[in-house]
Design brief:
about 40% helix
């Protein structure tokens, strides 16, 4: 995975924050073995940090896979906290539930199979933290589906918004060019540019970009 920062920064980020436990390590090994996309430890720690800073008790994730990012968050939730995992693939959700059971975190989680955006529209907030990790092309729709359920002071975090390691390469320079009005080189760049444009004009939200992992956008409800 191409980094958005130096190797030295990567070492410092690895030293800071909570360490991965044996279950997270097992999930990382599975992702490598199967070529399954996960957010990685940098973003996992950042999600945990955002949950800590917000004092999050309620979390909703669009596109959970087998639960890697949700597991990072669940570890820092209070005993009465809840994270809602969603995914189209029932098998992946079953695997996520098994990982959560083994990590003694299942009491903090719900697992809903189906279209993430449809589930988001039906979700009852307020949510302190929302994670968008479903299809990038659907990020704008996902944002709109869940935005009204975000608590004041809560955040929506979108992953893979500065990614350079994809079949349709997205680069910060290409993204900046598209946002400045130049043609986009591919569909992925168009989709991410559309998301940044949308959230930068979203009433009641303030958005920041962070160069961790494949890049995240953090939209705070103000």
């Amino acid at each position: 995975m191409a980094r958005l920062h130096s190797d030295a920064v990567a070492v410092l980020l690895e030293l800071a924050g909570p360490n991965a436990d044996e279950i997270l390590t097992e999930m990382e090994q599975r992702a490598t073995r199967e070529g399954f996309p996960i957010v990685g430890a940098e973003v996992g720690r950042t999600l945990a940090l955002c949950a800590r800073l917000r004092g999050a008790k309620t979390v909703f994730e669009l596109g959970s896979g087998f639960g890697y990012s949700a597991y990072w968050i669940a570890r820092v939730l209070p005993e009465d906290g809840t994270i809602n995992l969603t995914d189209r693939d029932a098998g992946l959700l079953a695997d996520a539930e098994a990982y959560f059971e083994r990590g003694s975190l299942a009491q903090k989680a719900t697992f809903a199979q189906g279209d993430a955006i449809s589930l988001a529209r039906e979700a009852r907030g307020p949510f302190d933290l929302v994670v968008l990790d479903h299809d990038t092309a659907d990020y704008v729709e996902g944002f709109e589906a869940i935005r009204d359920a975000v608590a004041p002071g809560g955040v929506i975090i979108a992953d893979n918004v500065l990614s350079t390691d994809t079949e349709q390469p997205l680069t910060p320079a290409g993204l900046e060019a598209k946002l400045s009005g130049e043609p986009a080189p591919n569909e992925r760049t168009r989709a991410v540019a559309a998301y940044f444009d949308h959230v930068s004009h979203a009433d009641g939200f303030e958005t920041y970009a962070l160069p961790f992992g494949q890049g995240i956008a953090v939209s705070c409800r103000i």
